[in-house]
Design a protein that fits this description.
With 369 residues, the chain is of the alpha/beta class. It folds into 2 domains: 42 residues; 315 residues, Arginase, Chain A (3-Layer(aba) Sandwich), CATH 3.40.800.20. It is built from 13 helices and 8 strands. Bound molecules: zinc ion (ZN).
Amino acid sequence: MVMDAMNLKNFIFNKAALRRITRIYIPCFVAIWLLLTGAAFMTEKSMSPLQLPQDFTGRLPIVYSDNYNIKFFGFEKLHPFDSVKYGEILDNLLAHQALKRNQLIEAAPPDDALMHLAHSDAYLQSLQSPWVLARIAELPFLRFFPARLARNVLLVPMMYQMGGSLLAAQAAMKTGWAVNLGGGFHHASYANGSGFCALADISLIVKYLRQEKQAQKFMIIDLDAHQGNGHETDFKGDDDVYIIDAYNKEIFPHDTAAKDGIDLKIELESFTSDTEYLDRLQKALDKAFVEFKPDLIIYNAGTDLLKGDPLGALDITPEGVIKRDEMVFGYALDRKVPIVMLLSGGYQRSTVQVISDSILNLKKKFKLF
Ligand SMILES: [Zn+2]
């Protein structure tokens, strides 16, 4: 043991090792720290918070901001997930000349009061920590980022998307339908975040519209491949929030306690295909609209149920997704219940085409715009 300790001492204090530490390790550490700190300042945005109410005259009820996209000096292109899908969907819609950029409703981040309506103070404080953001985003390297950089790269885009969901809900209440080209963070609740969802935009819609007495009864149709345990936790036992959730029962989050918050469950096996999926969805929607009459439908239209998605593990084709969206919009519009669509999960490169095709199909089928 004594020899071991001596050897260790010799190793640390021999001249070669000291040279390595002072000439390589310390300068490298300082350079990385300076780079990350510089990156934090370069990614800083001046954020003017969401102003409510807004006049949507002359605008299409489609909400977007360039700040939705999660970018990090081009490195995001190396990641298999498409973290800039929001802008790419808009580019597709613009390329089809379906709309003009200046017709969109511009999203902005919620102010402090809105953030506190959706979340506990303790949880909001915890989001200042890059360790917490790294856990929520399932990106371990993020914990070594300066807090400001982690916030700018991850939290700020989510704040814009959260504000966008609220704006879209308000637009839907006026025009009968709306789409936020982002949002749908269905794993986030009042006091917790996980599964790439830091902010509870769905809960914020419910709480804000109730506070402003614009709506009281909500139907959440959650068709992302994962169980929407965030809003289920927030509204468990609330008779005026009716939740339909279709999810792969074999994958994350396996939140048994939150399942009590679901009014109509469609539990799927891995690799469920179009026919079974659409059949079960139709039966569920028939039943739901007999049982409940909402003031607003919040449609969480995740696309991680697409065939080949490594997380969703379902087997739904692009045509199946387009039919699904058409079915849900059909139920809402036939009954004249306003519907707001949020994009939620689904980060395969192929989702961009499917989502933009589906929005174009809704436009055509229902003559939306
Ligand atoms: Zn998902």
